[in-house]
Design goal:
The chain is of the alpha/beta class and about 375 residues long. The protein has two domains: about 240 residues, Aspartate Aminotransferase, domain 2 (3-Layer(aba) Sandwich), CATH 3.40.640; about 120 residues, Aspartate Aminotransferase, domain 1. It is built from ten helices and 13 strands. α7 runs parallel beside α9.
Length: about 375
């Protein structure tokens, strides 16, 4: 068997240990005679699976008792609508727009009420995090929304916004479980699991209990009400059972690896390899203001779309895999490598060596060719 380096933004690589364990249990989960894919979500076996997954997640993140953990369907994008439906009591919310996903959430919120752009980094192609220490926040805002780590543009909120007492809502899809987090600073945290935790199809919502009410916008579908899901312990309808099962195994794997503090240290070491390389490179350059650089996503450019295509081809030949052709920086199709939180440091170094080799192969380019290059990798 020959496995590739799959640096896709999501679905991303899973720990081989988890995949092998799931493979061993595929036909007969712990002697029950069936696969998790086949069992009822009302069964004792699955009840144990989902409760154990929640307990391990609570332990990893030190989630306070006054927060509910919901395992839901629809991915993070469905939450763009569910959040205003449930939380926009005054029909007014503030959004800090720092990338594509915050931009989409902002646009969706406008359907349900007045969405106000409190700050944005669009003026410089989302290459930095705006100063959010003293925002002009109307008193009647229901919440302040951020996308904490930007998959596409490689920025990260190192300091949370000063919401001046308003509820903070955060999409953490691409930094989920990458470092310790103080859950009590948020009213609601959510993320699709496919970028850092498990297979596509599951979104985890962690929400403070006082925000879970029947006071939702008219027309909110029953299953999109957080109270519906919370009252049913995420079992109002058939949940994505197998995805939750895999998430539970990854939670245990992270605990075995040392927890979130160990994950942060691991990620810092791997990100440093990439950033150190980019900072001394004569061909590639990073696109993000240094103080706002993400540990999870590392974009860089050359400036020539033809060169981009050549490097993509060489990367595939070298057993690298990327997400296909999502346009991010104006005229070019982005080539994405999301540095998976679960890869070993040696593997990250191996990728670094591959790109160093590509740079050495490209040094014969003229200065004009370099100036035209525009290559974006998220690693």
């Amino acid at each position: 068997m020959s496995r590739v380096y799959n640096f896709s933004a999501g679905p991303a690589m899973l720990p081989e240990e988890v995949l092998k364990e799931a493979a061993d249990e595929m036909l007969d989960y712990r002697g029950c005679g069936m696969s998790v894919m086949e069992m009822s979500h009302r069964s004792k076996e699955f009840d144990d699976i989902i409760k154990e997954a929640e307990a391990d997640l609570r332990d990893l993140m030190q989630i306070p008792d006054n927060y509910k953990v919901l395992f839901l369907q629809g991915g993070a994008s469905q939450q763009f609508a569910a959040i205003p439906m449930n939380l926009m009591k005054n029909r007014k919310a503030g959004y800090i727009v720092t990338g594509q996903w915050a931009k989409k959430a902002f646009a969706e919120a406008k359907i349900y009420g007045e969405a106000i752009e409190l700050a944005s980094s669009a003026d410089k192609t989302f290459s930095y995090i705006p100063d959010c220490s003293d925002l002009d926040i109307p008193e009647d805002l229901d919440y302040v929304y951020i996308c904490e780590n930007n998959t596409i543009y490689g920025t990260k909120f190192k300091t949370l916004p000063n919401t001046k007492g308003h509820t903070l809502v955060a999409d953490v899809s691409s930094c989920f479980l990458s470092e310790p987090v103080d859950v009590s600073k948020y009213g609601l945290i959510y993320g699709g699991v496919q970028k850092n935790i498990g297979p596509a199809g599951v979104v985890i919502v962690i929400i403070r209990e006082d925000l879970i009410t029947d006071d939702v916008l008219p027309g909110t579908p029953t299953m999109l009400k957080y109270k519906t899901q919370a009252d049913a312990d995420s079992l109002y309808n058939t949940p994505p059972c197998y995805g939750i099962y895999i998430c539970g195994k990854v939670f245990k794997w992270i605990k075995k690896m040392g927890g979130l503090s160990a994950m942060k240290e691991h990620n810092e070491k791997k990100a440093k390899i990439l950033y150190d390389f980019l900072d001394q490179s004569k061909l590639f350059k990073g696109t993000v203001r240094k103080e706002d650089r993400s540990l999870m996503n590392v974009p860089f450019v050359t400036g020539d779309k033809d060169l981009d295509a050549k490097i993509c081809v060489r990367g595939k030949g070298g057993r690298l895999r990327e997400s296909e052709g999502t346009p991010h920086r104006g005229r070019h199709a982005g080539f994405h490598l999301q540095r998976d939180a679960h890869r070993r440091r040696g593997e990250a170094r191996g990728v670094h060596e591959r790109f160093r080799g590509k740079e050495q192969q490209s040094v014969s380019l003229t200065d004009t060719e370099r100036e035209k290059s525009c290559f974006n990798i998220i690693a």
